[in-house]
Amino acid sequence: MTQDPITRLTIRRPDDWHLHLRDGAMLEGVLPYSAAHFGRAIIMPNLVPPVVTAEQAASYRDRIMAALPDGMSFTPLMTLYLTEETDPADVARAHAEGIATAVKLYPAGATTNSASGVRDFDKVRPVLETMAEIGMPLCVHGEVTDPTIDIFDREAVFIDRVLKPIRKKTPDLRVVMEHVTTQNAVDYVRDTHKNLAATITTHHLIINRNHILSGGIKPHYYCLPVAKRETHRIALVEAATSGDKRFFLGTDSAPHTDPAKLQACGCAGCFTAPNTLSCLAEVFEAAGKLKQLEAFTSLNGPRFYGLEPNEETVSLVKGDPVDYPERIDTGAGPVTVFDPGFPLHWRVEG
Ligand code: DOR
Ligand code: ZN
């Protein structure tokens, strides 16, 4: 007996376990798109200057809540930007007082506003040990910054050179490998049964490196870690749609204005907040795994972070192609919305 295709899917309200909201006019412009679909999000701390202390995280959270339009509900889960000067006591206080949910590790120079990140990983050992003790997760941008390492290999090399030694020295530390882009990372997470999970972005499930570089350079597809070859994208789709509890959504929606993207040295980041759920429904449907969408967007993340799934639900309804803006106007300038390259048929309701 053949089953009727699913045309309506109701799932717990999703969360975004990796999100850039920026600040000021950009924050005001982009926040409503995330709040429309997501209950909570892990907020990246790579502002200029970065969000390093508990006090700075509390005041950034206040600015996010002040920018939230009336009638919308959204819970920002704050992170602290790890530097070589970070005080373990301040991290413990931020955690105990519910100000920060996680700490973010940027290797210095790896990506946007990462100059204050970590160069010598031994210098942050006391912070990592405190975090292991109190059960506070470390979110990791997993790329080495060694200029001699090819940019397409930086994630795989990071696992061997940095992540494995950190996890060996601090096995109780709970680690999220963020925005994984390679089969190597998927395999590493799958082979590890304790204290390790990974987020996967929407865009890395859709584009490979050809999309960026073939037939003309596409700056709006440039992000970090850069998309890899197709075999890696397929591995990511398999992991995301597998139901494996160690993989969950972190969109890494990272708005930059068009002038900042479209220049000789353009910024890294894809802005996916407005159409992420519609994109994901297409990806999961194409994989024949629509029923696993809820685990990826709404269940696995809270489970890792020790939170309950959201009580509310959203429905995805299949129909005529969905309209979404090509770009949005923010007070900071225009921001182009991620173009998946195919029509989106799944509309988000609720
Ligand atoms: O593409 C990216 N954009 N990757 C990152 O790691 C940072 C982000 C940003 O902040 O723009
Ligand atoms: Zn990011």
What is the percentage of strand-forming residues?
15-25%
Which architecture would the CATH scheme give at its second level?
Answer: Alpha-Beta Barrel
Largest sheet: 8 strands, parallel
Q: How many structural domains?
A: 1
**Secondary-structure-derived class:** alpha/beta
What would you report as the Rg, rounded to the nearest angstrom?
A: 19 Å
Number of helices: 11
The distinct ligands, each listed once, are: (4S)-2,6-dioxohexahydropyrimidine-4-carboxylic acid, zinc ion
- Kindly state the number of beta strands: 13
CATH class wording: Alpha Beta
The arrangement of helices and strands along the chain is EEHEHEHEHEHEHEHHEHHHEEEE
Global outline: globular
Q: What do we call the CATH topology? A: TIM Barrel
Poorly predicted sequence stretches spanning 5 or more consecutive residues: none
- Identify the strand order in the major beta sheet: 2-3-4-5-6-7-8-9
C-alpha end-to-end distance: 33 Å
Q: What would the keywords be for this entry?
A:
single chain; 350 residues; alpha/beta; TIM Barrel; three-stranded antiparallel sheet; 11 helices; globular; binds (4S)-2,6-dioxohexahydropyrimidine-4-carboxylic acid
In short:
This protein is of the alpha/beta class. Helices cover 33% and strands 17% of the residues.
Structure commentary:
With 350 residues, the protein is of the alpha/beta class. It has a single domain, classed as Metal-dependent hydrolases (TIM Barrel). The chain is 33% helix and 17% strand. It has helices at 24-37, 54-67, 88-96, 125-134, 154-169, 183-190, 209-213, 230-241, 258-261, 276-286, 293-305, and strands at 8-12, 16-19, 40-43, 75-81, 100-105, 138-140, 175-177, 196-200, 247-249, 313-318, 327-330, 333-336, 346-349. The protein has an 8-stranded parallel β-sheet with strand order 2-3-4-5-6-7-8-9. Strand 3, helix 2 and strand 4 (75-81) form a beta-alpha-beta unit. The protein is globular. It binds (4S)-2,6-dioxohexahydropyrimidine-4-carboxylic acid (DOR) and zinc ion. Residues 20, 46, 111-112, 141, 223-224, 252, 254, 267-269 line the site of (4S)-2,6-dioxohexahydropyrimidine-4-carboxylic acid.
